[in-house]
Design a protein that fits this description.
By secondary structure, this protein is mainly beta. It has a single domain (2-284), classed as Beta-galactosidase, Chain A, domain 5, CATH 2.70.98.10. It has helices spanning 108-113, 239-244; strands spanning 2-7, 10-16, 22-26, 31-36, 64-65, 87-94, 97-105, 118-127, 130-139, 149-155, 158-160, 168-170, 176-179, 185-187, 193-194, 199-203, 214-218, 221-228, 232-237, 257-271, 276-284. The chain is globular and about 55 Å long. It starts with a strand and ends with a strand.
Length: 285
């Protein structure tokens, strides 16, 4: 079943698989804001103070970060994809698996910020206890006329948890990370990783050491997180002090989510006209 709905006062699409699994995606930002696996509970965090349709971006779900991660470049923080309206392309039931496709293409407004022709496509599929989210970017410029471009990207996934202090994330042992709180780069020495408050780390080239999925354990159960095409991973939570300074986040809600983001940051993606890059992040509850 697929039907248009309103979320946060903005157009969205709601999809339900034959087995009862559900996903809701905002057209603003092409942003998944809800995933309820079959027979399970909500697995994505969405702030009760979130607002859509402008800036800042919607706090929660899976914001699409493109073509710049954070402030690592001249563009607005996290680029512009999460702040623009995406086109709903397709939704379908394929043998019990629900799929959805959204698309964002360049226009005068994007080219004023980033002078390149592109097409970004967000595809998701789900059924049972699984969700896969794929981001594809194509340089739609003409050979000999338009430029090769570079970009960084991420799926800024807010995973709903019951208590951050009791959460454990396994699978990053030995991976080098940049700690944005200290500016230092070092290998991960604990596995699983526990949390006591603010964390802001970019784990670089995660597949160089570990080929398997990450495992997130909470009182809500265990979730596996698998990526393909994304070289890096980001683990983020604002902690109590920064959460209190965010107008779109209740003061205590930093304890209710952990961002485990599929990312491509350390080495930007380079695309010549006509080339495409594809990467995905998959979850199993």
């Amino acid at each position: 079943m697929i039907k248009p709905v309103q979320v946060l006062g903005q157009p969205a699409m709601w999809l339900r698989a034959p087995d009862g699994a559900e996903v809701t995606v905002l057209l603003h930002g092409g942003q998944l804001v809800s995933w309820i696996p079959a027979g399970d509970q909500e697995r994505l965090y969405l702030s009760p103070l979130a607002a859509a349709g402008g800036t800042p971006a919607v706090r929660g779900g899976i914001p699409v970060i493109f073509p710049q991660f954070a402030q690592r470049g001249p563009l607005p923080r996290h680029g512009f994809a999460r702040d623009r309206t995406w086109q709903w392309v397709e939704g379908a039931d394929r043998g019990g698996v629900m799929i959805g496709v959204l698309r964002l293409t360049d226009d005068e407004a994007t080219r004023a910020l980033w002078p390149h022709r592109f097409e970004a496509e967000l595809s998701f599929s789900f059924c049972g206890l699984q969700l896969d989210v794929e981001l594809a970017v194509t340089n739609t410029g003409e050979l000999g006329k338009d430029a090769t471009f570079e970009f960084t990207a991420a799926l800024h996934t807010y995973l709903l948890i019951d208590n951050l202090r009791q959460a454990k994330l396994a699978g990053l042992y030995g991976v080098r990370y940049l700690d944005n709180l200290t500016g230092l780069t070092q290998p991960q020495e604990l596995d699983p990783l526990g949390f006591v408050g603010e964390i802001d780390r970019i784990y670089l080239d995660t597949h160089a050491i570990h080929k398997g999925p990450l495992g997130l354990s909470t009182a809500m159960g265990r979730m596996t997180i698998q990526t393909e095409g994304f070289d890096d991973a980001v683990v983020w939570n604002p902690g109590p002090v920064k959460a209190a300074a965010l107008a779109d986040l209740p003061d205590d809600d930093w304890q209710r989510f952990l961002c485990v983001e599929a990312a491509h940051i350390g080495t930007p993606v380079t695309l010549a006209p006509g080339q495409e890059w594809v990467a995905r992040q998959g979850f199993e509850a």
